């Protein structure tokens, strides 16, 4: 009986000490710089978002937020890094929409999409825009469709396999029964460079990245995937005007490893909300064709599961195949 009582006391004291240590640790959080992983190359929508919010987010947290680009495998390399990180709030990530569907298209991921992460907030969306290289002789979606039918195998680019751009282009090809070739990139920045360099012929990509180059005439916009026409491109039709229900945007959200101490989690959520409401940050995002969402964790998690289900259906119908 004494041994059992001593064991119980030891366990109870140990648990209390651990709880006290965690509380003391998290109450003083943060005491060092915070890594903000960007799963794609510089120049894309995720990188744009990270470099728009990091300074203000750091001010609200009381520490420097360091942006770290870690491209590869449609964002899953950075996600694996995040999943391995200690759940102490010092490693966060901005996830692209591909985060919700990589488990359908990439074999042997070193994490579980639904249990390895804490989906904190879907921060922003930006419409996908269908663009073509400057010298492609088409001026509308129908002309692009006819052109592809006359030249089967035309190449389209995306920011990565399973990204919204990939899904949109594959859906367009499926709808019109087109023969096209997918060329995935490590983000929208490299995709844009190759589109302007005429190495790929067309693409769906985030409007935030493509808009300056559409306005300069380096690439041509044919349609946007938003429910309404984009304010910046009022003369460009929506895809849903052409194919009803065609409305898949790019989204970007803040993600942490699962298991954050609750008070650290609340500090991050509070600082994120203050950052997204900051007038300068909000204006800069709007000027870059982003729509601010900043929803709650439950809503973000629900969006991840919804997009996963959409991808599963596309694969089942052979619109997309694992790559």
Keywords:
single chain, 323 residues, alpha/beta, D-Maltodextrin-Binding Protein, domain 2, 2 domains, six-stranded mixed β-sheet, five-stranded mixed β-sheet, 12 helices, 45% helix, globular, BUG
Quick recap of the structure?
Helix content is 45%, strand content 20%. The protein has 323 residues and is an alpha/beta fold.
Q: Percent range for helical residues? A: 40-55%
Stated plainly, the CATH topology of the largest domain is called: D-Maltodextrin-Binding Protein, domain 2
Uncertain residue ranges = 5-11, 13-25
CATH architecture of the largest domain: 3-Layer(aba) Sandwich
DSSP strand count: 11
Overall body shape: globular
- The H-and-E topology, N to C, reads as HEHEHEHEEHEHEHEHEHEHHEH
Mean pLDDT: 91
Strand order of the largest sheet: 2-1-3-10-4-11
β-strand amount: 15-25%
- Name of the top-level CATH class of the largest domain: Alpha Beta
Largest β sheet strand count, sense and barrel closure: 6 strands, mixed
Coarse structural class? alpha/beta
Q: Give the CA-CA distance, first to last residue.
A: 61 Å
How many H/I helical runs? 12
Organism: Lampropedia puyangensis
Signal peptide: 1-26
Keywords: Signal
InterPro entries: BUG, Bug_dom1
């Amino acid at each position: 009986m004494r041994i059992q009582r001593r064991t119980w006391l030891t366990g109870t004291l140990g648990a209390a000490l651990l709880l006290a240590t965690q509380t003391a640790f998290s109450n003083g959080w943060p005491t060092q710089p915070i890594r903000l992983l960007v799963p794609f190359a510089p120049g894309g929508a995720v990188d744009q978002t990270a470099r728009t919010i990091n300074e203000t987010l750091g001010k609200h947290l009381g520490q420097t937020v360091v942006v770290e680009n870690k491209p590869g495998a449609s964002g899953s390399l950075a996600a694996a890094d995040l999943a391995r990180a200690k759940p102490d709030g010092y490693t966060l990530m901005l996830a692209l929409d591909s985060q919700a569907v990589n488990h359908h298209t990439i074999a042997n991921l070193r994490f579980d999409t639904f249990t390895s992460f804490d989906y904190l907030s879907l921060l922003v969306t930006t419409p996908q825009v269908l663009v073509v290289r400057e010298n492609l002789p088409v001026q509308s979606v129908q002309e692009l469709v006819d052109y592809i039918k006359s030249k089967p195998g035309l190449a389209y680019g995306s920011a990565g396999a399973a990204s919204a751009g990939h899904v949109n282009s594959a859906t367009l090809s499926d709808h019109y029964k087109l023969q096209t070739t997918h060329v995935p990139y490590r983000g929208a920045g490299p995709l844009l460079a190759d589109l302007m360099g005429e190495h790929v012929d067309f693409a769906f990509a985030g409007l935030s990245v493509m808009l300056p180059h559409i306005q300069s005439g380096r690439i041509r916009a044919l349609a946007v995937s938003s429910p309404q026409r984009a304010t910046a491109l009022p003369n460009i039709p929506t895809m849903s005007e052409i194919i009803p229900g065609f409305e898949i945007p790019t989204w970007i959200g803040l993600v942490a490893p699962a298991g954050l101490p609750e008070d650290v989690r609340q500090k991050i959520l509070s600082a994120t909300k203050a950052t997204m409401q900051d007038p300068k940050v909000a204006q800069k995002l709007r000027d870059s064709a982003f729509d601010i969402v900043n929803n709650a964790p439950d809503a973000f998690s629900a969006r991840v599961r919804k997009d996963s289900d959409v991808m599963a259906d596309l694969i089942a119908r052979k619109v997309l195949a694992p790559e």
